[in-house]
């Protein structure tokens, strides 16, 4: 029998037709939509006189553009309000489930999908958002699409896609203290660059990956796009099944048993071939931070910014432009740089585990005076749990402000903007120029590193504080 | 949405050699608030093109009258980041029909082909040659021929062929989009769905 990768198995099961020297007609099980990339798709659909073919396969939530305070009131920003109202109108007209502001399952689209149990192994999932790759943590093929394709999914539940090449990244071993899945992915991207995954779909494997919780796996798959890959996935296992069991929309009873039996077949066959493979050791990974304007520009927190030695002229020009924007110089150490803001949130690290990590670390301490600290839960459910578990109180006592769910400062479409020239250490996924507001300077790191920065007010290796703490105790 | 057919394009180039230009630079998130596809060209490269008061920055290439044309000559790894098709709308609406680079981000390239902007991938050497040519003579022209799948620097006659699958090529030549094709498969799609 032909040996197949996990990716092949799911992909091949969703091809309705292959066009010679062209793309595949690819069936989509679940389609997530939000207020920013859907309105034009709905508009064009109507111009064409077409309806949504399978409305029950689409789920909507407003997240990108929503305020994170006073969500129960009318949205002040007129354009944002119009986008959210359009989404409501469109969902109503086409019979699409909407998790609106203030409802129990409102939140960032990539946080609520898994929470509700919509995201399940073996599925194909798309959304007009590049971080759709998050859902790959469940052993699904999930990737971002453009608005034209959103319209295609509405009209036909299919898109036209050429099958990407396959890459496997294996991380074996045990992670050190203070090192998290965010550090794994920032490390990998720093190794293979922000474009090293272009044209590929990645499978993450190895003992270090298998040992991770579902939330930590989502963080890794989420950032697959930051190395240019269309998406990344992890074979489902007991951790996956345990996470899904009992979730609102997960199968129940006999259907559950059948589903699990199928899900257990979803793994790469021994000897199946990948177009490209990378291997890493968990022991080489340490807390990471970015210093430039793409996620590939990352180093270990205790290291310095790389020098330009040996760089090609064209590369050097862009490199210096990037460092100039950040206000950094080649060769400078990262540790000790003053920071103005910390942001904990986004579909990368805005889940309950992330809030727990931060709360545990800052408990009984106070944030530094120079730091403004924002925490934005990824969903209402995260917010609710954080309250029930007493995390909110701990965080507020430490000087953090907890806002309401949404994308918030991850892309700064709403009012949550980092001011021009200021430095923010963020748990989000992009450090592009102006990503967190015009002129803002973003450094990406794990929730633990962000917590440490919040306390000291400068770039800090969280392990230094863990050690100090251990000594105090 | 249908778009203008693409056949043979002869044009000058606008050079932007910066590498890793992400979609947040092509169109910043705060300009994604529209519910219609209108006016995106005005905000193409917004924060590189205008200062915070809205005045054009003279050193940015789009503000430099020396350069013009329907071809954007871009640096390596162009269009990385977000899936926002708005980035390509901005490029198209500004007046570009073709982007040339030695390396494109995936989703961006896909989006280009879906709305009628031709992404042409050239070798790094040819990209360097094109940058050198336009620097030496801003009126240097290239010819992009989708039929022959070639890009030619007219002053030297140097030419390279580029990849595009025959399905997308037909679409670009006819100004078609995928939905027309997919809608014809309705029965097959419904049968497939029923089996899931
Ligand atoms: S949190 Fe950030 S990355 Fe995630 S969906 Fe929202 S804007 Fe995109």
Automatic annotation (TrEMBL), chain A:
<keyword id="KW-0411">Iron-sulfur</keyword>
<comment type="pathway">
    <text>Amino-acid biosynthesis; L-leucine biosynthesis; L-leucine from 3-methyl-2-oxobutanoate: step 2/4.</text>
</comment>
<dbReference type="InterPro" id="IPR004430">
    <property type="entry name" value="3-IsopropMal_deHydase_lsu"/>
</dbReference>
<comment type="similarity">
    <text>Belongs to the aconitase/IPM isomerase family. LeuC type 1 subfamily.</text>
</comment>
<feature type="binding site">
    <location>
        <position position="407"/>
    </location>
    <ligand>
        <name>[4Fe-4S] cluster</name>
    </ligand>
</feature>
<comment type="subunit">
    <text>Heterodimer of LeuC and LeuD.</text>
</comment>
<keyword id="KW-0004">4Fe-4S</keyword>
<keyword id="KW-0408">Iron</keyword>
<dbReference type="InterPro" id="IPR050067">
    <property type="entry name" value="IPM_dehydratase_rel_enz"/>
</dbReference>
<keyword id="KW-0456">Lyase</keyword>
<protein>
    <recommendedName>
        <fullName>3-isopropylmalate dehydratase large subunit</fullName>
        <ecNumber>4.2.1.33</ecNumber>
    </recommendedName>
</protein>
<dbReference type="InterPro" id="IPR036008">
    <property type="entry name" value="Aconitase_4Fe-4S_dom"/>
</dbReference>
<dbReference type="InterPro" id="IPR001030">
    <property type="entry name" value="Acoase/IPM_deHydtase_lsu_aba"/>
</dbReference>
<feature type="domain" description="Aconitase/3-isopropylmalate dehydratase large subunit alpha/beta/alpha">
    <location>
        <begin position="8"/>
        <end position="457"/>
    </location>
</feature>
<dbReference type="Pfam" id="PF00330">
    <property type="entry name" value="Aconitase"/>
</dbReference>
<keyword id="KW-0100">Branched-chain amino acid biosynthesis</keyword>
<keyword id="KW-0432">Leucine biosynthesis</keyword>
<dbReference type="GO" id="GO:0003861">
    <property type="term" value="F:3-isopropylmalate dehydratase activity"/>
</dbReference>
<dbReference type="InterPro" id="IPR018136">
    <property type="entry name" value="Aconitase_4Fe-4S_BS"/>
</dbReference>
<comment type="function">
    <text>Catalyzes the isomerization between 2-isopropylmalate and 3-isopropylmalate, via the formation of 2-isopropylmaleate.</text>
</comment>
<keyword id="KW-0028">Amino-acid biosynthesis</keyword>
<keyword id="KW-0479">Metal-binding</keyword>
UniProtKB/TrEMBL annotation, chain B:
<comment type="similarity">
    <text>Belongs to the LeuD family. LeuD type 1 subfamily.</text>
</comment>
<dbReference type="InterPro" id="IPR000573">
    <property type="entry name" value="AconitaseA/IPMdHydase_ssu_swvl"/>
</dbReference>
<keyword id="KW-0028">Amino-acid biosynthesis</keyword>
<keyword id="KW-0456">Lyase</keyword>
<keyword id="KW-0432">Leucine biosynthesis</keyword>
<dbReference type="GO" id="GO:0003861">
    <property type="term" value="F:3-isopropylmalate dehydratase activity"/>
</dbReference>
<dbReference type="InterPro" id="IPR050075">
    <property type="entry name" value="LeuD"/>
</dbReference>
<dbReference type="InterPro" id="IPR033940">
    <property type="entry name" value="IPMI_Swivel"/>
</dbReference>
<dbReference type="InterPro" id="IPR015928">
    <property type="entry name" value="Aconitase/3IPM_dehydase_swvl"/>
</dbReference>
<dbReference type="Pfam" id="PF00694">
    <property type="entry name" value="Aconitase_C"/>
</dbReference>
<comment type="subunit">
    <text>Heterodimer of LeuC and LeuD.</text>
</comment>
<dbReference type="InterPro" id="IPR004431">
    <property type="entry name" value="3-IsopropMal_deHydase_ssu"/>
</dbReference>
<comment type="pathway">
    <text>Amino-acid biosynthesis; L-leucine biosynthesis; L-leucine from 3-methyl-2-oxobutanoate: step 2/4.</text>
</comment>
<comment type="function">
    <text>Catalyzes the isomerization between 2-isopropylmalate and 3-isopropylmalate, via the formation of 2-isopropylmaleate.</text>
</comment>
<keyword id="KW-0100">Branched-chain amino acid biosynthesis</keyword>
<protein>
    <recommendedName>
        <fullName>3-isopropylmalate dehydratase small subunit</fullName>
        <ecNumber>4.2.1.33</ecNumber>
    </recommendedName>
</protein>
<feature type="domain" description="Aconitase A/isopropylmalate dehydratase small subunit swivel">
    <location>
        <begin position="13"/>
        <end position="123"/>
    </location>
</feature>
């Amino acid at each position: 029998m032909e040996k197949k990768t996990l990716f092949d198995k799911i992909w091949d099961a969703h091809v309705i037709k292959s066009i010679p020297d062209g793309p595949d007609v690819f069936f989509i099980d679940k389609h997530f939509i939000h207020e920013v990339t859907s309105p034009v798709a709905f508009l064009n659909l109507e111009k064409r006189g077409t309806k949504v073919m399978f409305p029950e396969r689409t789920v909507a939530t407003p997240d990108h553009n929503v305020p994170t305070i006073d969500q129960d009131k009318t949205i002040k920003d007129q354009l944002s309000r119009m986008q959210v109202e359009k989404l409501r109108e469109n969902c109503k007209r086409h019979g699409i489930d909407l998790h609106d502001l203030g409802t129990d399952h409102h939140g960032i689209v990539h946080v609520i999908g898994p929470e509700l149990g919509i995201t399940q192994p073996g599925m194909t999932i798309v959304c007009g958002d590049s971080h759709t790759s998050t859902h790959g943590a469940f052993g699904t093929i999930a990737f971002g699409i453009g608005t034209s394709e959103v319209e295609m999914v509405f009209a036909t539940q299919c898109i036209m896609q050429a099958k990407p090449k396959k890459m496997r990244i294996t991380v074996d071993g045990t992670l050190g203290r203070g090192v998290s899945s965010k550090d794994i992915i920032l490390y990998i991207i720093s190794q293979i660059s922000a474009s090293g995954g272009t044209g590929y779909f990645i499978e993450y494997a190895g003992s270090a990956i298998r040992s991770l919780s579902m939330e930590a796996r989502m963080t890794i798959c989420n950032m697959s796009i930051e190395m240019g890959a269309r998406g990344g996935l992890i074979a489902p296992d007991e951790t996956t099944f345990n996470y899904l069991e009992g979730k609102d929309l997960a199968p129940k009873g006999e259907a559950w048993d059948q589903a699990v039996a199928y899900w257990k077949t979803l793994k790469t066959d021994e000897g199946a071939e990948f177009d490209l493979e990378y291997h890493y050791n968990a022991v080489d990974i340490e807390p990471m931070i970015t210093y430039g304007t793409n996620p590939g520009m990352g180093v270990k927190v205790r290291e310095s910014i790389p020098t330009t030695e040996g760089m090609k002229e064209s590369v050097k020009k862009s490199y210096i432009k990037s460092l100039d924007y950040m206000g950094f110089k080649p060769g400078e150490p990262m540790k000790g740089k003053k920071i103005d803001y910390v942001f904990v949130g986004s579909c990368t690290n805005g889940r309950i585990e992330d809030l727990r990590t931060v709360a545990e670390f800052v408990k009984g301490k106070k944030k530094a005076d120079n730091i403004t600290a924002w925490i934005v839960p990824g969903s209402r459910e995260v917010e609710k749990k954080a309250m029930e578990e007493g995390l909110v109180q701990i965080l507020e006592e430490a000087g953090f402000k907890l806002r309401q769910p949404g994308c918030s400062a991850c892309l700064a479409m709403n009012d949550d903007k980092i001011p021009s020239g200021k430095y923010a250490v963020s748990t989000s996924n992009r450090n592009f120029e102006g990503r967190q507001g015009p002129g803002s300077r973003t450094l990406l790191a794990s929730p633990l590193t962000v917590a440490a920065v919040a306390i000291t007010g400068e770039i800090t290796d969280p392990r230094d504080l863990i050690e100090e703490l251990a000594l105090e105790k | 949405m249908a778009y203008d057919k693409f056949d043979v394009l002869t044009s000058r180039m606008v050079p932007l050699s910066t590498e890793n230009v992400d979609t947040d630079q092509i169109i910043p998130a705060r300009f994604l608030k529209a519910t219609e596809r209108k006016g995106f060209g005005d905000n193409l490269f917004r924060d590189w093109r205008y200062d915070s008061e809205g005045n054009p920055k003279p050193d940015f290439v789009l503000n430099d009258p020396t350069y013009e044309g329907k071809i954007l000559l871009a640096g390596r790894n162009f269009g990385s980041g977000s899936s926002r098709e708005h980035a390509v709308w901005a490029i198209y609406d500004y007046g570009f029909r073709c982007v040339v680079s030695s390396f494109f981000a995936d989703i961006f390239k896909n989006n280009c082909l879906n709305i009628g902007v031709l992404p042409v991938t050239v070798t790094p050497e040819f990209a360097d040659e094109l940058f050198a040519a336009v620097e030496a003579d801003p009126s240097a022209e290239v010819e992009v021929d989708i039929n022959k799948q070639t890009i030619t620097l007219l002053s030297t006659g140097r030419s390279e062929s580029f990849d595009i699958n025959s399905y997308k090529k037909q679409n670009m030549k006819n100004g078609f989009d995928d939905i027309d094709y997919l809608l014809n498969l309705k029965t097959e799609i419904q049968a497939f769905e029923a089996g899931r």
